[in-house]
Amino acid sequence: MEENRTMETLVKQYAKYISDINPYHNSDMLEKFDDGLDDYTGYIDNITEEWFNSFNEELGATPKEYLYSLKKPENEEETYEVIKLVSLNLIILAPKFFVDYLSEIEFTKPCVKKILQDDVIAKSYHEAYSEKDDYEAFELYSQAVVLSQAYEDLADDLLEAIKKCHPANDNILEYIVESLVKMQTFDKVIGHLNDIDEIDMKYLNLLYVITKHKSDDTYKCLRRCFKKINDDGVKHLAAYMFAEYGDSRAVPLLRKYAMDLRNRLVNSFEMSEEQRKELNWSFFGVVNTIEQMGGNVEDLKNF
Questions:
Q1: Are 193 and 221 in contact (CB under 8 A)?
Q2: In whole angstroms, how far apart are CA 292 and each of 9, 134, 206, 242?
Q3: pTM recorded for the entire structure
Q4: What's the structural domain count of the chain?
Q5: Is residue 86 classed exposed, middle or buried when 0-12, 13-18 and 19+ CB atoms within 10 A define those classes?
């Protein structure tokens, strides 16, 4: 093992590489990813895998050889410093090779659990990024959510994170959803949702998680949660979760809700223009979902 090899050198080499080829720095390249995040993520994964296994002159080895020649962290403090180094020096979350490496270290799990206890995500992204300490804590939290995927028993910590997360923090919520889906802890998520009295916008993320699990308990949970939503702006989006799940048993429930929206539109004389516009948006969102699921909507469209 070369004495002058350091994790910082490797991280900074990868940071330089990913910055140079990042499509968000190249408008022509960015057009290739109009179809969505999955295409972009796949692109990053592929080029990172190629980089990781190719000889690097600056490192004097392949990044993979370099990484595994380093002395591994021997306690939680050293492990935390590696996670912090990765979190604060990359323009994207740590790639798979860093995640795999860290998951092999026994001190990573307690570090991740401790980071997930931080309340920084209760602040909005914009508020947190105005203070250096909060910014660093926010970046660490994002990375910890991704690292948690290796530890199924940290699902409870992620569910608690949903509770305290500011609804404006879309990225954090998306990372939590991705981790829960990869953990396959669907029964735990269903139990968590069943215990919530009122479903608001951020819990739609958890509804999306369980749509990936086909079971009667999933359908019952989706139905129960749908009935607990009072905000039409949230409820019409929750209706789409039935289509995502793909169970036509929900059509009568959705038709009943669409009819209620339709009746309110017909009698909306005292509504402001903005209120009517929002109600109209919700109505047609539900109607489109019913139609997507094969339900009849002709009578609903006749005012």
A1: yes
A2: 52, 43, 22, 10
A3: 0.81
A4: 1
A5: buried
Q: And the tokens for 120?
A: 């920084």
**Is residue 165 classed as helix, strand or coil in its secondary structure?**
coil
Those residues with Cβ within 8 angstroms of residue 230's Cβ, 6 or more apart along the chain or in another chain: 198
Cα dihedral value 171, 173, 179, 185, nearest 10: -170
The range of the structural domain enclosing residue 244 comes to: 214-303
161 within a domain of the structure (yes/no): no
Orientation angle between helical segments 155-164 and 108-116, nearest 10 degrees: 20
Q: Which of 181, 247, 176, 175 is nearest to 212 (CA)?
A: 181
Q: Report how many helices (DSSP H) and strands (DSSP E) the chain contains, helices first.
A: 18, 0
Query: Does residue 28 have a pLDDT over 60?
Result: no
- 10 versus 29: which is more confidently predicted? 10
Q: Which of 99, 93, 41 is nearest to 67 (CA)?
A: 99
Q: Is the pLDDT of residue 2 over 80?
A: no
Alpha helices in 53-183 (DSSP H): 63-69, 76-89, 96-103, 108-116, 125-128, 132-147, 155-164, 170-183
CA distance 22 to 280: 40
Whether 29 is covered by a domain: the verdict is no
Residue with tokens 């979902």: 289
Cα angle 35-251-235, degrees, rounded to a multiple of 5: 65
Q: Is residue 229 part of a domain?
A: yes
CB 236 within 8 A of CB 286: yes
Give the separation between CA 135 and CA 39, rounded to whole angstroms.
28
Cα radius of gyration rounded to whole Å, the chain: 23
Would you say residue 183 lies in a domain?
A: no
Helix %, strand %, coil % of the chain (to 5) = 75, 0, 25
**Residue 26 pLDDT > 70, yes or no?**
no
